[in-house]
Design a protein that fits this description.
By secondary structure, the chain is an alpha+beta fold. The protein has 2 helices and 12 strands, in the order ααββββββββββββ.
């Protein structure tokens, strides 16, 4: 006859309660960190997307000749959707006859992602703001615009208009000297406004053109007496600065 006492091999109620309590404490300690990590990942993703949108609008400063939407259209987009598809009456990209400079919509300027609106929605599932200023803004984690947790790129609104300062030199026939900014000549600057060719003129030195949108422009010196172009060139101008241009010709 077996007289050994029966031993219970399961958990007691107290042991179960202790285990549950420990798990609850661990969950309470770990959950905020996990949630914060999720939020931090969304913030970083949103920052990257905001930079991509901004570069689509104004180009990249580290890439020569990169002027984005502004460089082609001569203005900021009306909405972020305009970076992916042109409005009905928007002029499309076209090479002009003068100096081969082109104007007009040459998109798409961004990749749409898995769906047509992916890049236009931040990582929190909300649309961005700021297309008409070039400064991309997300409402951030709290979903409220214009408070301290907004995600903004760039920190300050970009400046896309600049100054072009032109100097002309008329060389002497004997090649022994030149006349600086001689009278009787006009400087014409061709650029894009709303995707269409436009030009400004200045007949009096110093030849200065202000608020010219960044991009590739054509420039010409015209002899007024004969309405004759004596020299022409293509220039690149950037926002927020002064582009110095020297044009030399001989008559």
């Amino acid at each position: 006859m077996n007289t050994r006492p029966f031993r219970h091999t399961g958990f007691t109620l107290i042991e179960i309660v202790v285990v549950i309590a420990v798990l609850a404490i661990l969950a309470a300690a770990i959950t905020p960190a996990i949630l914060q990590q999720v939020v931090d990942t969304k913030i970083e993703t949103t920052r990257k997307e905001a930079k991509i949108l901004c570069e689509a609008i104004i180009g990249r400063s580290d890439v020569k000749g990169s002027f984005g939407f502004v460089g082609d259209m001569g203005r900021f987009p009306k909405s972020f959707e305009e970076l992916m598809r042109p409005d009905r009456d928007t002029p499309l990209y076209k090479v002009l006859t003068f100096r081969g400079v082109a104007t007009g919509w040459k998109g798409p300027y961004i990749n749409a992602g898995d769906s047509k609106d992916d890049i236009l929605i931040d990582a929190f599932g909300r649309p961005y703001k700021g297309a008409p200023t070039g400064q991309v803004r997300s409402a951030g984690p709290d979903g409220v615009f214009d408070d301290e947790d907004d995600i903004v790129y760039p920190p300050n609104p970009p400046v896309v208009g600049g100054r072009v300062l032109v100097t002309i030199k008329r060389m002497a026939a004997e090649d022994i000297g030149y006349t600086l900014d001689p009278p009787g000549y006009q400087v014409r600057l061709y650029y894009s406004i709303d995707g269409k060719e436009a030009f400004l003129t200045d007949d009096i030195a110093p030849f200065i053109f202000d608020n010219i949108p960044q991009g590739v422009h054509a420039i010409a010196v015209v002899r007024l007496k004969k309405d004759q172009i004596v020299v022409q060139d293509t220039i690149e101008s950037y926002g927020g600065g002064t582009k110095l241009v020297e044009l030399i010709f001989r008559l």
